[in-house]
Amino acid sequence: MTGTDTRLRLRGRAQMIWVDDALLLSLGTTRLRVAPFTEKELPHLHELRGGCAADQVASVPWMSRLHGAGFLEECTPASSDPDLARFDRLLNFLSEMELAGESRFTLLRRLREAHCVIVGLGGLASWVVYNLVCCGVGRFTVIDGDVVEMSNLNRSILFTEADVGRPKVTVAAEAMRRFHPRIEVTTRQFVVTSQEDLVPELEKADVVLGLADQPPWVIKEWITAAAQRTKTPVLLASGSRVGPFRLDESGACAMCDWSHQIERQPLYGELLRRQLRLPRGSSGALSPHGAMTAAVVAMEAVRHLLGLTPATVNRVWQLAGDFTAGFDPCVKHPRCGVCGTTGDKGLPLPSESLERP
Ligand SMILES: [Zn+2]
User: Fold this and answer.
1) I want to staple 333 with a disulfide (CB 3.0 to 4.6 A). Which of 91, 157, 259, 311 is the partner?
2) Domain boundaries defined on the chain
């Protein structure tokens, strides 16, 4: 789409090397060699970095080749929208995806309109939230029943000492809006005690991120089961594990992961039942650990929201103690109590280990 008013410029992520009389360009996997390239062309290249009229590009053969090979984008139009400046470097990333057909502005709008539900506002979630806002995600529902405690502050970047005693959801929403005033944040302050608690919150979400860890495994079941009912894509993470990311019926869910575990170790359910009766400990927590896990969660969510396939579909990403990371396969379990397809009751679920009053 070029016309007399259209201006074109080099995509921000285009890399260049000038060797002898040739200019070598790369953008992702695309390579282009412009030769001869001499001092005479250099001012035009600088001009092209800033933006040239489409007619000028069309009249210069090497510029025209760059355009044909996908190295040029339309200049960002003059706009009063402050988010175009805020997300300028994000738009450079999205620019590369324009080659697949959608403009970077459409992709940014998709992120801004995306609604992400976050269950649990611990240290992991605090890094996830900031990463998502940095990536342009614009609508959030945050769910947590706790208040801020002093001991949260060694790993959460959402809270300050002045917030101790205040609801986490309230403080988080304030921090998020302070960081980016044009996002929407809905707060829900309650302790999740069943899948039914979550169903109304998930109905209009584009993705739910389960980042709560209590009660162990049971909270994963409630989030997964609620997402199954509302058909909401769901990704769970805790500690140093992320996944599997369930997008639809075809993929494994977190309870498939559980089902494989209890199939290998039938006593696992009983062990959980006993663990749930023991006094709850307070595990050690290092902020960089959470930040690394959170980066994977946020990247996966953004990939999904942009229409790319997340890396943790049917896999679990795991960070080991020596900082090596890798994927463990997690295929759908036909007898999974949440998404199983055998038609029977399926394998026992974690909530069956809960002592009900
Ligand atoms: Zn499942």
Assistant:
1) 259
2) 1-75, 114-353
Residue 103: closest CA among 11, 238, 32: 11
Among 1.10.220.110, 3.30.450.20, 3.40.50.720, 3.40.1190.20, name the CATH number for the domain at 114-353. Answer: 3.40.50.720
Give me ligand 1 centre to Cα 218, in Å: 14
Q: What is the pTM of this model?
A: 0.91
Distance 235 CA to ligand 1 centre (A): 12
The CA 40 to ligand 1 mean position distance, Å, reads 63
Average predicted confidence (pLDDT) for the chain = 93
Q: 339 CA to middle of ligand 1, Å?
A: 4
Q: How far is the CA of 330 from the centre of ligand 1 (A)?
A: 10
Asked if 25 and 32 touch (Cβ cutoff 8 Å), the reply is: yes
pLDDT digits 0-9 by tens, 267-281: 888 888 888 888 776
Q: How far is it, in rounded angstroms, from Cα 323 to Cα 120?
A: 25
The position carrying tokens 């109304």 is 200
Q: Which fold has domain 1-75?
A: Outer Surface Protein A; domain 3 (3.90.930)
Structure tokens at 318: 């795991």
In the reported structure, the alpha carbon of residue 9 is separated from the centroid of ligand 1 by a whole-number distance in angstroms of: 47
d(CA 313, ligand 1 centre) in Å: 12
What is the Å distance from ligand 1's center to 256 Cα?
4
Per residue in 19-62, pLDDT (tens digit) is: 999 999 999 899 999 999 999 999 999 999 999 999 999 999 99
